[in-house]
Amino acid sequence: MKRRQFVTGLAAAAGVTACAQERADCAAEGAASQETFEWNLVTSWPPGLPGLGVGVENLAKRIETASAGRLKIKIFSGGELVPALEVLDAVSRGTVQMGHDSAYYHRGKVPAAQYFTTVPFGQTVHEINAWLYYGGGLELWREIYEPFNVIPFPAGNTGVQMAGWFNKEINSVEDLKGLKMRIPGVGGEVMQRAGVTQVTVPASEIFTALQTGSIDAAEWVGPYNDISLGLHKAARYYYYPGWHEMGPMLQCTVNKDAWNSLPGDLQEVVATVCQAINDDMMAEYTWGNAVALEQIKADPNVELRQLPDDVLRLLKQLSEEVLTEMAEADESAAKIKASFDEFQRLVVPYHRISELAYLKAREL
Ligand code: CA
Predict the structure, then answer these.
(1) pLDDT of residue 4
(2) Which of 27, 39, 234, 359 could be stapled to 210 by a disulfide with Cβ–Cβ 3.0 to 4.6 Å?
């Protein structure tokens, strides 16, 4: 009875349908699969943060369940085991087996990593998924992480973010000049060229910085996460759209030696659960953002505004400048930009007559 339970559990966990025909192979695989693994995972996120933090907790739970307890993952929040922005380094060194953060946090080391999160005026969630899974993007991502001994997996997305919270109205490009704004990544460089002073403020300090006036503006994510930081109580104008982060991809990274130590079926569990989380996090954000936006709109102290077209036009032009210079200075950024741009040229005409046309039609 015990043995039958063990064999049934094993087959269910591994999904090995071939076992019925290939008894010898099944026995060999079964022997390897008895081994259990206990991994540590570091993230950049505060514990329990809606979306990002909850997504990682789901990732660990689902890997443990899908592997029938053979792969257990312990999560460490941002700063708990290693500094919040050094997740990739910890996975690379093998300090931990797994990480969850954003590729663009590491653009100091790997400029091209920016493309595997997002670039200004880049790809929406559907588009970046298509580029990564079907357009050759994931192969390029694996290639640039090869020297770090790390394997990346797409693992979550926030969808279109907001342009941010402002304590001053933005009616023209002139209004950007002299603003002090928290905005990271290439988006921050673009803002800097538009006359904004770019500052780096960790998530936990954005509220105070805005409220005390030490900064005039800040972007974080969107209604779901912004309301959890209380940003609607620290600034009046909530501008959209998130031209700089329209479908930012989160990454799950696995140390390559740890990956190679896993039997094939557990590797498949990790890959499949990462893909499930990639999908699930987007669903959570869509739901959470819609609910939180209603709350923000009901607040009499908040005004929801769209950035003027001439401001967006300028930001688009400056984004192209920054990305072109980045490609000129870095060979792998040039190669990845070429692939990214090629896919964008292919997908935009299709989305113009599908997503965009439909969303316009629904507004008639
Ligand atoms: Ca953001």
Answers:
(1) 41
(2) 234
